[in-house]
Every structure is written in structure tokens, then in C-alpha cells.
Amino acid sequence: MRILVTGGAGFIGSHVARAVADAGHDVCLLDSMHPAAHGRSANPPSIVDDLPAIRGDLRDPATVDTALRGVDAVVHLAAMVGMGTDIADLPEYVGCNDLGTAVLLAAMARARTGRLVLASSMVVYGEGAYTCPVDGPVRPVPRQLADLAAGRFEPRCPSCAAPLRPSHVTEDDPTDPRSVYAATKLAQEHLAAAWARETGGTVAALRYHNVYGPGMPRDTPYSGVAAIFRSALERGEPPRVFEDGRQRRDFVHVHDVAVANVLALDATAGTTGFRAYNIASGVTTTVGEMAAALATACAGPPPEVTGRYRPGDVRHIVASPRRARTELGFTATIAPTEGIAAFATAPLRA
Predict the structure, then answer these.
(1) Which of 48, 51, 7 lies closest to 30 in space, CA to CA?
(2) Alpha carbon distance 341, 350 (integer Å)
(3) What is the rounded CA–CA span in Å between residue 29 and residue 73?
(4) Which of 169, 158, 12, 148 is nearest to 77 (CA)?
(5) pLDDT tens digit sequence for 62-101
(6) Rounded-to-integer distance, Cα 110 and Cα 202, Å
(7) Which of 128, 217, 259, 350 has its Cα between 20 and 30 A from that of 15?
(8) Is the pTM of this model over 0.90?
């Protein structure tokens, strides 16, 4: 098949593009080289140099129409990611992520390209799943700034205020985005689901958890926490961990994420409709544990737990990968202990 990978010059996109090409598909790339991901780089990185690429903005219908010629399926990764700098980033997030997706979907309908693998995110859930010892499964309300400032980081039951026990979210759990980026990722899912219903197309929305690995951009407001910690260690500084470091996450290696995309392309053949999948390692790691493991692997200073916080952050978010294992045949193969040790010396992009 001929596959278009949007955002194919980015961190995850470049790994996905290579994996799709290695699986025997004819791959073409579309990437705007947005400065939030690439700085002021003039050219796509060398990891995708042997794949044909169009440099263009997904929001331009003519560019997208050109990129879709002869394409059988699209892997859509083009997006602004991360928490950004402040609310001033909101128009750019909505423009790149939601308007760009809408233009792509309209062009796919014109081209009769009916298969989409969408890069979604665990951020669509907001807080993860929790159980109250009194009230059972509950959804916590957003944490209050006064509690965060006082170092009270754990969510409490909205009914009885009892401490909650975190558990794993499934794809059928409610969504509750709590940042601008999260809101745009959920909007992408809704747009793709509407497109699938109206065109008879198929969408596999892959909800990535905390992706890390070689080729991550260096320390920027749009980087993942792994790259931020790694950049600090390269400067001889301790990784600075927000809150108390006990936030639960699932760190999944970019190699495994790339494999999941290939499997999703195969699994969607002959299907219709929208289906979401958690793409995770299945291993719970706290942010503090990740920082400590990386500091040890880098032979750098131990993490500094700062107590600082960001209002848009969630406390715990880990997911069940069961559906991806059952329906896509996906199981992560790189354990966080192995992957984080290798990440200590992996190349980052400027």
C-alpha cells in the first residue's frame, strides 16, 4: 500500500515512517517543519531522507490534495504536542491540531482514501481511573490550586473526600481533557469519528502514553519529560521533578509505538468505524523513579524534587493495554528499565 505519514519528520513520525517502510509499504511524508518541533531547521532530519517528503502545512487544502495522490491509508501524527508555554499557544494548538485534521479528513473524503491511523494521546482521559474505599469507582474533580500550593497533590473522592486508589483506565472510560493540548487531541478523535461515520471509513486512534526514545527534541516547552530530564543531566544539572515525584505514568518506547502503528494499519483492513487503543508498556513508573533511573544511567546528579506544579497536569494516568493486545496483536517489547538505560546515551535532536 501507499501510506502517507503526516508529521513524518518529527520524533515519533520519523520512527513510524521507517517502520511502515520496513514493513514493505510505499511511504511518503508530509511535514510543515513547525519550529516548536524542529527549531529553525530548513530540512527534514536524515532519518527520513530516503523517503519522499513534502514540506507543507496540513492546513492548506492544495498541499494535502497533492500529498494524497495515490494514497491508500494515512498515518496522522502532525500536531503540536506538550504543555506549551502559556495560554497564548492556544490558537496555534487549535490551528495545527484541529483545523489541520479537519482539512486532512475533507481531503481524504475527496480522494476516497478511507483508512486512518490517528496519533491520539492518553491526555484525553484527564486524570486516570480511581477507586474510593467508600464510594467505589469515582472520577476526581480537578485539583485545586490551594491544595497544590500546600503540597496536597493526591486527588480525593468528590463525594466523601477520602483518599483515592489509582487504577488503570480502559478505552471505554470517560474522557476529561484538562489542558489545551488535551482538548485538541480529543477534538481530533471526535472529528475522525464523524468522518468515519459519514464516509464509511475506518479510524484506529492510538492513545500514546509517555513516549520516549532516540530522536526526542532537546529541552523545549514542547518536549516530553524524558528529554527535559536528559537535557538537564547533559548540562550537569539534576533533573527537576515537579510535585513529590510520585505521579504514576506509563513510559513506552518509540520503537514499540512505531510497531503499534504498523499493526494498526494491518488490523484496520476491511473494517469501518472508529476504535481507540491504549498504546502503553503496561508497566507503571513514577516520574521520580524515571528521573532517578535516568540520572543513574547518565552518572549524573540525583533528581531534585521541587514541589512545583502546573495547573494542567494530572496526578496519575496509567492504562490497560489489553484491547491493543487482543485486537491489534500489540505488546510492548522494551521494558522501561531497559529503554531508559539506553535512552541515557541515545541521540537527541537539536
Answers:
(1) 7
(2) 21
(3) 12
(4) 12
(5) 999 999 999 999 999 999 887 666 788 889 989 999 999 9
(6) 15
(7) 128
(8) yes
